[in-house]
Amino acid sequence: MPQKDSYIDQELQESFSDLLFRVRIRGNEGYFYFLFEHKSSPSQSIALQLLKYMVRIWESKLKESPTDRLPVIIPLVIYHGQEQWNGPLKLSGMIDYYEQLPDTVTQYIPEYRYILYNLSTYTDQELVSNMLLLIVLRAMRAIFIKDEENFYTILHELVLNLEKVEDKEKAKQFFETLIIYILSTRQDLELKRIYEIAKEVSLERGEMMMTLAEKLIMEGMEKGMEKGREEGMEKGKLEVAKNLLELGIEMDKIVKATGLPEDEIRKLMN
Fold first, then answer.
1. Would you say the pTM of this structure is higher than 0.85?
2. Fewer CB within 10 Å, N or C, the chain?
């Protein structure tokens, strides 16, 4: 059963996301803790970060129901960066000269190992048995590709594959998740290009893409209002208007969203 809480530090939320599942392990309560590594390079300190998150889960359980027993937690890291993973798989790998220490010392040092799934090592043929799983994993594996044209090609393939999913409602949900994931992770991509790819596959996907982009841009503008007061709110509004124009949003909607006069927006169009 999935648990709602996240244990990621606020400063790491752009690079990591996590999922916690409560499970039964030989009839007893336990947990699978999934940590998704969204950075393009391996983390050398992830063993320590995982330990911190596991302690938080245990502390949370103790607050819920005081007991002197702790549930099993199996930590699992899912990595999809382009560089080869070279971080230590054990906590001891972070401790200086651990291999040289005698057992009389190491017995007092905490130790555990996490499971690593490196998605970048899988071929498309190995993932093809489940279409939705293939789409998710290919998106995660491709998200850091530096060649934008290559990424757009892969995105087009992913959207096409979604059209082959028989459960149309689930395909719709996956498309929304895919677009939000891409727009949240890659700020260097062109909104108009992503919209054109979605629209080429189907008009419905194009309309969904436009709606999602509008929503994300508006949310970004709202979050940036405080920062905008310091850096110049007018500049922020112009940037939002530019993004909406690239998506082909109607003039009246842009005026309403940004509060800018129509003639100011027309200057951007020119």
1. no
2. C
